[in-house]
Amino acid sequence: MTETTIINPAIEQIPLRSYTEKAYLDYSMYVILDRALPHIGDGLKPVQRRIIYAMSELGLKSTAKHKKSARTVGDVIGKFHPHGDSAAYEAMVLMAQPFSYRYPLVDGQGNWGSSDDPKSFAAMRYTESKLAHFAELLLSELAQGTVDWKANFDGTLDEPITLPARAPHVLLNGTTGIAVGMSTDIPPHNLQELISACVHLLDQPGATTAELCEHIQGPDYPTEAEVITPREDILKTYETGRGSLKMRAVWQSEQGDIIVTGLPFQVSGARVLEQIAAQMQAKKLPMVADLRDESDHENPTRLVIVPRSNRVDLEGLMQHLFATTDLEKNYRVNLNMIGVDGRPEVKPLNKILTEWLAYRMDTVRRRLQFRLDKVDHRLHLLEGLLIAFLNIDEVIHIIRSEDEPKPVLIQRFSLSDIQAEYILDTKLRQLARLEEVRIRAEQEALAAEKLELEKILGSARRLKTLVRNELLAVADEFGDKRRSPLARREEARAFSETELLVSEPVTVVLSEKGWIRSAKGHDVDGASLSYKSGDRFLCAARGRSNQSVVLLDSTGRTYSLAVHNLPSARGQGEPVTGRLNPPSGAGFVSVIMGDDSQQVLMATDAGYGFMANLADLHSKNRAGKTTLTIPRGGRVIKPVAISDRENSLVVAVSNEGRMLAFPLAELPRLARGKGNKILSIPSSRVQSREEFMVAVAVVTPAQQLLVFSGKRHLNIRASDLEHYRGERGRRGNKLPRGFQKVDRVEVTGND
């Protein structure tokens, strides 16, 4: 037997792929349109709109008493928003926090959180709330036929699709939200600036974003921190609808301390102090001695940073803190919202205000038409009432004698059904009291109002003027000064590792066998220190503890080591080869210290050399880098520090007693290489080591030169060097008798 599958024709069958695709798209559109994105008309998400409407229905206006928040949340989730109570309550809390909303919509009583911890609010059974006065901007015209309505989730009640905002609230308080495949980040703005831009757009409908930005300087957050994004970047953000903003804390110096008085939007002061304290514990802020939080009711933000001494550069310290803590923060801008056409879109500023003004014009037109219909209805009733008053006896007779007086009244006095109903509903006592004069006075007033309404509705110019005046009235009633100043600031820069170190005088000592150590102070005699057996003092360099020391080896390679990491001179140091990887067989010749701009003379005894900046000699590589190229047979000479390039002379002495002096400026400045010829020595004699440059020195006019040969020495003043002056690269002149075999030279006198 074979089985047969019976398919019920009443059941629709579709592929699983099509079903899941449609279901996901439906869910996506629901999240986008009904949860995450604000509407351009009132600037509210559905949950926010439902909270405000529910509070207005409960009578919680700004003039009413506060009620428990749980009452409001219950109405919201029970009547309009069938979601979790915590989500609805958190949305209401956000609208009540003055540090979160530029213009709060809810007036809260109790613990509604703090700027240090916005989530620290009390449960809704403890807090009380009502609408803030500012919420009138959204609700005052709700009952005047201005908006469309829809059924709530169970069809038992109606709720407004949007609220009739009297100002562009979508930009006033801003919002953030994450939907499916899109998000929104709209910053808050200043009411007066927005109204000014809207008025300009009414006068000049084709105004560009750049023209509107003459009125809107930029976002205005509920904090006193500075917006430091350049104006051209803000303009580009408004033109595209996407970009970023940067805020920086405001600080001042008070009796040598740093006082932070304004933090960026949604930045916790406690968190900032934690970040600074962490750096202090990690010894990355040696210039900071103490931190205090002195914030109170009078000073909502007052963070005190105490420097270690009055010599600390406060501006430099703050630049470091801006770069490494939340004292400076970036904010994403994404002007994504649901337009009047019901579709989400990222809009530029001019399009946002143009669409909102169209929404506002339509709202005002509907309000005026609603009022006109009311006036017409009332005039119609008054007309019937006047007929009844003028024929009061006959009307009373008809009512008393007829079983169905309504059709008789309609036929006798040519009344409409509504007029007849209104006359019958009016108490006889009240009808008798009415006077013809009072009825006619009300008719005249309503007729005048009707004429004015028809004029406005019939003229686009009059309607625009009305909207303009109402916007200016809103600015007068609710406007305030900008809270977030705009400023141009340089980009913050964090301290480098060396800048964070304490700058103390140190002396770095190197032994002949390559052992290195660091001693505090500049009065250290390296030769008097203790050395391992068979080792002795080679050279020393004086500098600061936050500098690096440059080592030069016998192959012409240079290396760098951070001084603060070197072992103390109390011991015998440690071998350099434990930190560096010099070539096999190479020995270290010298150590050099100083600022990166310090110039040194690099030379080989083959008679070649050049000037270099100390910055050119540094290398982060353990293997160093080739700086000095050594000719065949030549050897490295210890580098010579240069203090005065313009007026100094280079003095070169050969082992055969020849000396040449020439201006230092004749040597080139190179980063690496062999250099130019200093003293003329045949290469063959260098290779055979018969003749070589035994020493080179840099002498200023205030110094003198000591030439040593055995136990004898020759003292040559700078003025006496004229005898040895010549062109660079010459052989030089002979020294006096007895100095044909020179051992070394020294420079003495003031630098």
State the CATH topology of the largest domain: Neuraminidase
* Cα-based radius of gyration, to the nearest Å: 44 Å
| Proportion in helices | 25-40%
What is the correct CATH architecture of the largest domain? 6 Propeller
Show unreliable segments. none
Q: What do you see in this structure?
A:
The strands form eleven sheets. Strands 10-11-13-12 form a four-stranded antiparallel sheet, covered by helices on one side. A four-stranded antiparallel sheet has the order 19-17-18-22, with no helix packed on it. It has 751 residues and is an alpha+beta fold. It has 20 helices and 35 strands. The mean pLDDT is 90. The termini are far apart. It folds into five domains: 44-164, Topoisomerase II, domain 5; 250-326, Gyrase A, domain 2 (2-Layer Sandwich), CATH 3.30.1360.40; 362-477, Orthogonal Bundle (Topoisomerase, domain 3), CATH 1.10.268.10; 503-586, no CATH class; 595-751, DNA gyrase/topoisomerase IV, subunit A, C-terminal (Neuraminidase), CATH 2.120.10.90. Helix content is 32%, strand content 23%. β17 and β18 form a beta hairpin.
Question: In summary, what is this structure?
Answer:
The protein has 751 residues and is of the alpha+beta class. It contains 20 helices and 35 strands. The strands form eleven sheets. The protein has a four-stranded antiparallel beta sheet with strand order 10-11-13-12, covered by helices on one side.
